DNA sequence: GCATATCAATCATAAAAAGCGATGGACTTG
DNA sequence: CAAGTCCATCGCTTTTTATGATTGATATGC
């Protein structure tokens, strides 16, 4: 029952639908008409449906036939993608491109490059991984991702090649109901120390990312949106990317916090495009890297 | 190049990936191991890629192989859907179910039924048509749609079977800047007459739907959202389904208009599930109709 | 209206493809 | 180290598929 369907049958079916006759389909496929006729006969027989109404001069698709032709097109498109991936590999493309992207990184600046990527390599499977902080680096190192778009704090590791792309300005914020919101002046370490800081941290190695930690008590989060929930409810303070909190600050849901001698650079944290040095990029990865640098590195 | 790929090759490939060895795949597929071996060999040969690393005791998928196995699963799923549709037809199901739905009809009450439909008939292709007012009736009559979810004004035509499902309360509204908004009392026909009424009408037969027309000057629209643009900008007045304007009225973007002797029934316009009498419903259509009546007809 | 061309179904036959079974070299397991 | 399992290869058989000719039906051109 299942298992006897053939791609060839579907190709023949679609070709008949496109050309309008069995004979024409035969010519187009380089086969004699009787072969076409038999192929469709077996297809109809096995599937137990009638695809064409043969009462007239030319065969007419039945209602069922019309629907199944559309389904067949989907199957063939899917098969073509299979062959497309294989062809890409044959021509030296990597079989897939995995991009690790940090949660702090804004998506918008990358859309253009990624859209161009998908046009240049239409059959390349692309996937994204967003783990917590430090996740990108881990994916790069175990070769699960070819390219990382990530922070590299405190500095670029030796085994990683990285190109700066853009900077994300950070803004310390707190909910309006929080004591720090009523401070009314620049906050000193003494001010911050007693309050809970909501820290984004590496889920695997929670001790690693202590950059910018000022409070004695930290609550650690892996994902940004959950941390935001706690932030908004007044649980503690933290630094957030400006692009994510600008609206909330305007709406009054969050209040900016000015910190004395803030170690976070004024001009923002640098977002890098990175890849593992010992794992050379494939064609598509190299293309994306070049395109990103061209578009973003000013 | 293209055209020699076989579903059977993909089935074999996926089976190997699932079972972990050529021999096991052979057992599972009821074939001898050498057949499996040859199938994969030709697949690799034709596609020009290496799928397995045979250096060890068991064959290991290469990176390319891993990606292509996933692609192959997609192709097979697509092929299974093809066979699923065919099986449905074989068992008496209609090949597809087209539902014509009027623009005024709220979507929310139908989601449950349609979700149940897709669970009951997972391979049934379902599509929706929303034309202007009267479009549903036209689709039903020329058998382009099996079921219509629509208004039937002024009454149910003879060639249509219709079951009332729910009622949509209508609310005459106007933008706050419009003269009628400042009337401050129930509007009489004399009040309405000089102002432009924004009428939803049948794009094919513009004269047909004059139900509820009160103004001398009408602007006719086919789709609801465009009419809403004109309404919001203060161009004229019209009746809108309550569920669509409730928020806008609350926000002050629209003002309710009370009309003397409004011919629109207080309890709302009736939404029917309808089908053409001379075109009996298929199994799935009948099922949906019954389910809709069961869930909605109170 | 008649001749001619084109259409699809059918059948016997030829060609191609796919599966089978046996064999051999490689690796695992106990 | 022996027994068991793995995959590649090969000759052979079976099955599948395409071909080419024929027939009956429908369209097209004169």
Task: Please supply descriptive tags for the structure shown above.
homodimer; 298 residues; alpha/beta; Arc Repressor Mutant, subunit A; D-Maltodextrin-Binding Protein, domain 2; 3 domains; five-stranded mixed sheet; three-stranded antiparallel sheet; 12 strands; DNA-binding
**Regarding CATH, which class of the largest domain in chain A?**
Alpha Beta
Helix content of chain A: 40-55%
Query: Which radius of gyration of chain A do the C-alpha atoms yield?
Result: 29 Å
Alpha-beta classification of chain A: alpha/beta
The protein's oligomeric status is: homodimer
Total strands of chain A: 12
Q: Domains counted in the coordinates of chain A: how many?
A: 3
How does CATH name the architecture of the largest domain in chain A?
3-Layer(aba) Sandwich
Say which CATH homologous superfamily of the largest domain in chain A is assigned: Periplasmic binding protein-like II
Overall pLDDT of chain A, averaged? Answer: 88
Number of helices of chain A: 10
Q: Low-confidence parts of chain A lasting 5 or more residues at pLDDT below 50?
A: none
């Amino acid at each position: 029952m299942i298992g006897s369907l053939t791609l060839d049958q579907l190709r023949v079916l679609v070709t008949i639908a496109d050309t309008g006759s069995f004979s024409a389909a035969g010519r187009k496929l380089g086969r004699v008409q009787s072969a076409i006729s038999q192929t469709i006969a077996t297809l109809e027989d096995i599937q137990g449906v009638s695809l064409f109404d043969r009462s007239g001069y030319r065969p007419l698709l039945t209602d069922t036939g019309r629907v199944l032709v559309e389904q067949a097109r989907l199957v063939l498109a899917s098969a073509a993608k299979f062959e497309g991936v294989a062809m890409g590999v044959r021509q030296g493309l990597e079989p897939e491109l995995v991009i690790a992207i940090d949660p702090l990184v804004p998506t918008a600046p990358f859309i253009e490059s990624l859209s161009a990527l998908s046009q240049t390599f239409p059959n390349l499977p692309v996937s994204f991984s967003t783990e917590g902080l430090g996740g990108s680096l881990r994916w790069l190192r175990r070769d699960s991702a070819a390219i990382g778009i990530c922070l590299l704090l405190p500095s670029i590791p030796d085994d990683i090649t990285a190109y700066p792309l853009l900077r994300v300005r950070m803004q310390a914020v707190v909910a309006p109901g929080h004591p720090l919101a009523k401070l009314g002046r620049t906050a000193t370490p003494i001010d911050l120390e007693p309050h809970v800081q909501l820290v984004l941290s590496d889920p695997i190695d929670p001790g690693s990312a202590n950059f910018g930690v000022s409070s004695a008590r930290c609550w650690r989060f892996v994902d940004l949106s959950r941390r935001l929930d706690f932030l908004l409810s007044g649980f503690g303070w933290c630094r957030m990317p400006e692009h994510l909190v600008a609206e909330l600050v305007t709406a009054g849901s969050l209040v900016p916090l000015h910190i004395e001698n803030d170690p976070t650079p004024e001009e923002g944290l640098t977002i890098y495009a990175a890849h593992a040095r010992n794992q050379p990029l494939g064609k598509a990865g190299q293309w994306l890297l070049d395109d990103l640098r061209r578009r973003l590195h000013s």
